[in-house]
Each structure stands twice: as C-alpha cells, then as structure tokens.
Design brief:
By secondary structure, this protein is an alpha/beta fold. It is 36% helix and 18% strand. Strands 1, 2, 3, 4, 5, 6, 8 and 9 form an eight-stranded mixed beta sheet that branches. Strands 7-11-10 form a three-stranded mixed beta sheet, with helices on one face. The termini are far apart. Keywords: Glycoprotein, Glycosyltransferase, Golgi apparatus, Lipid metabolism, Membrane, Signal-anchor, Transferase, Transmembrane, Transmembrane helix.
Length: 332
Amino acid sequence: MENGRRHFRHTSICLLGAAAFFFIYLNWDWKWVSSLTPPLSSAAAGPQGEDPGPYHVAYPKNYKYIMDDTPTCNTKTPFLVLMVHIATGDVAARDTIRKTWGSEKLVLGRPVETLFVLGLPGGPDAERQQEELKQENLQHHDLVQSNFQDSYHNLTIKTMMMLEWLAAHCSKASYVMKIDSDVLLHVHNVVQLLLDPSTAKLNYLTGLVWWHSPVLRNPFNKFYMPRNVVAEAEYPPYPLGMAYIMSLDLPAKILAVSPRIKPIFIEDAYLGMCMQRLGIPPTDPPEKTMFIVDPEHPLSRCSLSKVIAVTTTSILQMRSYWERSRQPDAGC
C-alpha cells in the first residue's frame, strides 16, 4: 500500500513538472536561441562586413548595381514590369520563363517587360557563375544584379534593391509585379485586372493578402521572431511574397519610410510593416482564386483560366500550364 502511494506521488510530481515545463515553453521569450544561430558570413552581412544578427538584414548599405543594362524603362516605357526574384544558378528557370509567360510583350494593347532580380553567387565556383551570368545578360539584357550575397536570408535586401531600381528607373511605368521563379503567371489576367476601372492607379498593392498573420514564437520554426525584435503579436497585413502587384508610385514611398523600420529577414512581412507606416493597407484581389500558393495539382482548365499567379512544382509543369492557359477552349 505504501509503495502504491509513493508511486502515485512520484507520478503526480512528474506530471506537474511536465505541465510546468510546457507552460514555461509557451511563454518564455527564448532570447537565448539567437546565440545558437550561426553568424552570417561577412559577405551576407554587407559591403562593410557588419553582422546584422539572425533576425535582421544588412540594409541599407552601400550596395551597387553591377548589371542593369536593360532597355526596360530606359528606351521602353512599359505599362507593367514583371520582376522575377530568382537564384543566381537557376538558369533553367530563367530560360523557361523567357520562353513562356515572360515572352508576352504586348498584352491587351499594353507593353509588358520581364526582368530577373538577383544578387551575387556564392560558393567555391562563384567566379565561374558570375562570368556565366555576364554572358547570359549579354544575350538577353534582362538581369538586374546588385552586389549583396544572394541567399534566402537576404530576400529583404533583394526586395529593397528591386524597389530602389524601380524608383530610379521606372517612375513612368504604371505597375510592377514581383514574382517568385516557381510561379506561373497568367499575364493576360494581370493586365485585365489592372485595366479594370475599379483598380486603383495609386497606392495600390494586391496579392494573396495575409491578414492577422501571427508572429511565430516557436524557436524551432524557421520564421521564429523573438519579442525583442517584433513585440506585436501579429504582423501588419501583407501580400504573400510568391507574387504581388503594386502601383509604381509606391516604391519611392516605401523607401522613404523604410529607414524608420529596422528590416527583418521575412521580406513580405517587412513590406507590410512599411505599408503600415505609410497608412496604406493592401487590397484583396477580386477573387481569392487569382493567387494560389499551395494548389492541388493538376489544375483544371477552368482554374487556369481564372488564375493570375500559382505556385508550380517543376519547370515541366509551368510550361504545360502556360500552354494550356493559352488554348482557346481553356475557359470553364
């Protein structure tokens, strides 16, 4: 009997201890986790070599454009500029986009241009990759490259350098669309939306808008953000980074307020923080099905006829969907 009581007390203590540990886990700020994050390389930290830490990025810095000889917004004034964020070594994706939706230059009577945004290659063969990029650009003149290290952690830098380039070169264009390289774009539907009389010409930002997106406090999640970096429980509303459209008055406005907000590595959330500072909320698209981040493949012809941007799983799938979307009977 006494053994039974001791076993019961031991079990109760263990359960109470586990509950207490779980409560602490949920409410602890986990500030020590940042010390476990490996430091960024000096290349990732920026031209001056400062380490911004695991949650911020090295922006603004003295970055320069080392390739941007495109005629887009120089000798041409497009209605819509498509800016594809892509890894330096992803030549196959660039060539596929050039041959599919990136080849569409005149849509519903409006000129459209496609450019690729990238930073510096890394790794032991970085010099060879850079030389290949130069040769690729000599052929296509569609690369906009800056001298920050191209990496997942530096996507906010890539976004801000894109906005800097647009503000400096494309103020006479009407709209810009940022697209990830694995996204199929239905360019006709984009232009059709932008020509709609109800679509704003200024202060316009749309895409798959995330409202009330929680700031994740789980230190084992790759999007973890401690309270000492972002104190709020939710991020301001922002369009998901897979694809979003903005009117071309916004790049300069965002750049004007960005020095007041220390940039975090989650680039679309940071864009939402800048928009909140401007007092300009994003706009939901007319239909949620226009932007699909996690589709159930294969997509039907009806879905393809309505979509603006959808994430694909391969180059072959992107090519197949693009060809199907152009068929006369691709509607519902």
